[in-house]
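Write out the bound-state structure for glycinamide ribonucleotide.
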Amino acid sequence: MLTVAVLISGTGSNLRALLEAARHPDFPARVVVVGADREADGLAHAEEFGIPSFTVPWHLHESREHWGEEVGRQLDVWKPDLVVLSGLMRLLPPSLVAAYSPRLINTHPAYLPEFPGAHGVRDALAAGAAETGASVIVVDDGVDTGPILAQERVPIVEGDTEHTLHERIKPVERRLLIDVVRRIATGELALSSAS
Ligand code: GAR
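---
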């Protein structure tokens, strides 16, 4: 059984979808811990599913390195086989990436390498693109530059706002994420820094 840690910053709707998938006896992975960089609303999903959680508040640390060291210490308690960044809106320091990558994956609401960074949905709209997408990647030291594990196109429709477009992307992200975690767990998808 693949053990998974999930790191979040926000509402954790993708985390919730993974928790729901993972409670099926046939699913080959289990979420063992959820972590956040703030008192994220999504931590409530962990509580509801009886999954332990931790918070390492970003603002209480003097540098990315120090924050990352504490996140690493928390993760090491659980020794997860895989770490999923699911809406964690922080870049991890290189030391933490080195410790976990390529067993460190990220969901992103755009068709990478298009529209990387913190505002993937807003940037696609601002560019006047006709379509965007969702991606699941291995985390490396760049900003959304790691090897792509799965991705799918999502059309942008007339009148889309950042909210409506993001809400249409998220179900695609969830499906891709659950499938990637399943394929990693079964060995169908081998992770390497050049996956
Ligand atoms: C997701 O769309 C995720 O891809 C995105 O934040 C959202 C979190 O939603 N992450 C990034 O943009 C990272 N660059 P959720 O909290 O409802 O799961």
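---
The chain has a mean pLDDT of 97.
Residues 1-100 form a domain with the Rossmann fold fold (CATH 3.40.50.170).
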